[in-house]
Specification:
Two copies of one chain form a homodimer.
Chain A: E1 2-4, H1 7-15, E2 21-26, H2 32-41, E3 47-52, H3 72-81, E4 86-88, H4 92-95, E5 105-107, H5 116-119, H6 123-138, E6 142-146, H7 150-162, E7 168-172, H8 192-197, H9 199-213, H10 219-231, E8 236-244, E9 259-267, E10 270-278
Parallel strand pairs in A: 1-4, 2-3, 2-6, 3-4, 6-7
Antiparallel strand pairs in A: 8-9, 9-10
Helix pairs in contact in A: 6-7, 9-10
Chain lengths: 279, 279
């Protein structure tokens, strides 16, 4: 496995690859959620490229970039163990040179304004910018993105369609622990009691899903059921509960064919999100 | 020379090319301005790809897309004569499928808001969108853009930098007729009297350039000199005269190292633009 630090070297390495390239883009803090991405795409491509870049533009000024888990050595070892051929691990100066104009940006559209976009104002613009830069530099044939970040996944699919990038975007189902809690880098922030309390997210989503499965189609009722479950956990503070259109993430009144149930909670120092498809 | 109509076939043809690719992107109406692009880039690349696409998204609702010169057979003959290997000539439905979301767009930034951007509100958003799509589909190593559309050229350079596209953007000097009038597809709209009147654009730019060369550094004075020259031509209606920053296109008070003198005029049915570098 080769670790590449500069855009120029990454482009050069890419230009010598003749087969198909798969990309697993990460912020670091590699866990089983990420390695599932690697294991899924590894048999589908000739060359597997990982990226390791704690992108500053997708974090707000009061957010947790400084405490985000970062252990490059451990992360590189995981990439290698899961069959990665190259890891692109640039510095922030390399990706955002201080002299660069950086003026044209991707406008990720209305789906980026709600839910996560409402709580983290420039988050998706930062995501869109770095993902398009990584796509431009690495030119993958396919790239994985997790369903846990459902809104991000859909926005990246929109960008891929709109800019005609022609990349096969592979959604990766959310990796869950035995009690259903979604694996996330931010789970490391939780105390044992908070970790226990955090099971409430998946419980609330499961209640919505069971209710959907048994025929409930009012989004209002489904949201209310999630809120009722979440209200039983004093350590959890609701940021949003949503029954949203799977494409635009607009809140629904009535669910027709499908919807996504999403929620965001603060538990102790961590902001946690999770979602489930109702279909 | 091979003519390609679909994105899928263009991607397939591109993937079989191993050498460097040059791109000359056009709206059609090929004239000596365009063939200069082909002749410039032809010796620099292994494979020359032209594009022929009258992009609807860069024309406003009251603009001249319906009367824009379009003779595909003649255009293809010019491409072939000047050594083009592939011409990508998609339909509007192929580039903008009716089912596509098309939601994420390139925000081309503040340089797109002034001058041409002020007179043609969504023009540069349309240009940015189609150029990024063409870049994504064709993956050129180098691409030519004309200095006649100086603002467009600079915005495309900004996009190339910001999205890390890594394309060598080759600026092509403006092709002029013997009286200095800039060659443009829109010149076909002019009557002989209007064509004669249109020489006033280059005259006004030349006066600004001569004044700059002899030491004038007040942008106000330089703009006034252009306006004085233009006022002598009753057929010409000024849309703007500008002494602008070469990078941001913001109007200058005092010219330091360099500036671009730009103007836009209506003469009869045609809207004409031209510019010159003061450096």
């Amino acid at each position: 496995m080769q670790v590449i630090r500069t855009i120029a070297e990454m482009r050069e390495a890419r230009s010598s690859i003749t087969g198909t390239v798969g990309l697993v883009a990460t912020l670091g803090g590699i866990h089983i959620g990420h390695t599932t991405h690697m294991d899924t795409v590894r048999p589908l491509c000739d060359v597997l490229i990982g990226s390791l870049f704690l992108n500053p533009t997708q974090f707000g000024t009061n957010e947790d970039i400084s405490s985000y888990p970062a252990d490059e050595e451990a992360d590189l070892a995981e990439f290698e163990k899961h069959g990665t051929d190259f890891v692109f691990a640039p510095t922030a100066d390399e990706m955002y040179p201080p002299t660069g104009t950086g003026v044209p940006q991707i406008d990720p559209g209305p789906a980026a304004k709600v839910l996560e976009g409402a709580h983290r104002p420039d988050h998706f613009k930062g995501v869109a910018t770095v993902v398009v830069r990584l796509f431009s530099i690495i030119s993958p044939n396919m790239a994985t993105f997790g369903e846990k970040d459902a809104q991000q996944l859909r926005i990246i699919q929109h960008i891929n369609e709109s800019l005609k990038l022609g990349i096969d975007i592979i959604p990766i189902p959310t990796k869950r622990e035995s009690d259903g809690f979604a694996v996330s880098s931010r789970n490391a922030y939780l105390s044992p009691a908070e970790r226990e309390a955090a099971t409430i997210l998946y419980k609330a989503l499961t209640v919505a899903k069971l209710s959907w499965d048994s025929g409930e189609r009012s989004a209002e009722v489904l949201r209310f059921m999630m809120i009722s479950v979440l209200a039983g956990e004093p350590l959890a503070e609701i940021q949003y509960t949503s029954i949203a259109d799977v494409d635009t993430f607009a809140e629904l009144d009535q669910v027709e064919h499908s919807a996504r149930a999403l929620l965001a909670m603060k538990i102790g120092p961590a902001r946690l999100i999770d979602n489930i498809l109702l279909a």
